[in-house]
Amino acid sequence: MKNKGLSAKRITALLCAMVFAMSMFLTGCQIGSTEETTTTTTTTSTPAYVPEEEYSVTCPKCGSTNVDDALREGETYEEHYICYDCQYEWYVLNGVAYEIKDNGQSVTIPNYTYRPSYNYRPSGGSSSSGGSSSSGGSSSSSTKTTTTTKPTTTKKGTNLTTDDVKELAGYIASGKWLNEINWYIDEDGNITTEGDKGVLGFGYSTKDKCFYATGNAWQRNFGYNELYDRTSQLIAISYDTINVYFTYNNKDWMIQFWKGQYGMVLLGAEIGVYNRTLKASETGTTHYNAVKDAEMLPISLTLYQNDKTLFSRAQKSSWWQTGFVPGQLGITSGVLVGSIYTNDLKVTTSITLKDEEMTQAFVGGLQAVTKIFNNVDAMNANDTNAGYRSFTFSEGDGSTPGTYAVSGNTVKLSWQ
């Protein structure tokens, strides 16, 4: 079993690395650098950045260190965290900490000690504090050996050169980076890393024989935006997708389904659960946030290719249930494939909603579906309707594509 685990681990890591390297190459990835002003009282050595992960953040509510950075793109907070043990969420603004309530309101957290992420250590010297501020915003000079100013939020980018890409490819091919990752196999037989973050947000299920998105994948911080579906083909992803919208518990919800070819090596399917405040719809934005732990839903997922089962994942509470296996769709016709190929894939799933009210709201959203979107077909710039094809759901057995079945608060459905 140990040898099998090691083999799966290496396959997981190498496949993820290939996708990562390919996505950087195709999108012209830039390496960001920041500017900072530093005054050191103990040494004249050039400061070196110490990653935030070297510092332990404790939940103000339960004291757990099972805390992750929840800072999203566009937020101007100094810090934004979520505790995965008690679902407590808070942020720091101008040195003051605030709890984020379920209704979206913010309440000041008293006696919270804030340490900025921008900590520096003189190279070759001992560790020094980046300064600590109380909720009142005052700093403690007695523990401060290095004074720094926070780097500007504007990053300068440097385009990757051919030598950079070759160096990265050589490092990946060497396999040395595998030894720097804290791997483990959980009780369900999933190969992942510390904090269930996986490699680039993915792990491997030895039980289901497929890759999957881990519970604390970095993608959770970015939620969903329509722009993602419009640009995903740039990293060689081809898929069909359906959006189901409904309102529940004073929030706009969206459950989205995907199936298709991911890069040139994987076939897969995804189900994402997102929501946002009701007022967000008034701004015209298409952005939704990944749900909090307390809002996650038990979801099962099975993917078929021409009636052959590719993988089946049992129902598990999740914000993003996924599965990916090696395979291609019409690869001889090119890297990107349209709906003529993705239509060979069928998905069945069961989702257990919170209560009867949520179940009825979700079913109403299913009944309102009128179309499937294919991101590759949409590349026809001369046709504003490109990418869409008609599709509806009706009550049935939940196994035949286009049908759903309700049992209590569990909805089973199928689409193709």
Task: Give a topology summary.
Blueprint: H1 2-27, E1 30-33, E2 38-40, E3 47-49, E4 67-69, E5 79-83, E6 89-93, E7 96-100, E8 106-108, E9 120-122, E10 146-148, E11 156-159, H2 162-174, E12 183-185, E13 190-193, E14 202-205, E15 210-213, H3 226-231, E16 237-248, E17 251-262, E18 266-277, E19 289-290, E20 297-305, E21 308-318, E22 320-326, H4 339-342, E23 345-352, H5 356-367, E24 371-374, E25 388-390, E26 394-395, E27 403-407, E28 410-415
Parallel strand pairs: 26-27
Antiparallel strand pairs: 1-11, 2-10, 3-9, 4-5, 5-6, 6-7, 7-8, 12-13, 13-14, 14-15, 16-17, 16-24, 17-18, 18-19, 18-22, 20-21, 20-23, 23-28, 24-25, 27-28
Task: Please describe what this structure looks like.
This protein is an alpha+beta fold and 416 residues long. The protein contains five helices and 28 strands. The chain has a domain at 223-415. The strands form seven sheets. Strands 16, 17, 18, 19, 22, 24 and 25 form a seven-stranded antiparallel sheet that branches. A hairpin with a 3-residue loop joins β17 and β18 (266-277). α1 runs antiparallel to α2 (162-174). It is globular, with a radius of gyration of 23 Å. The two termini are 36 Å apart. Residues 1-14, 16-54 and 117-156 have low confidence and may be disordered.
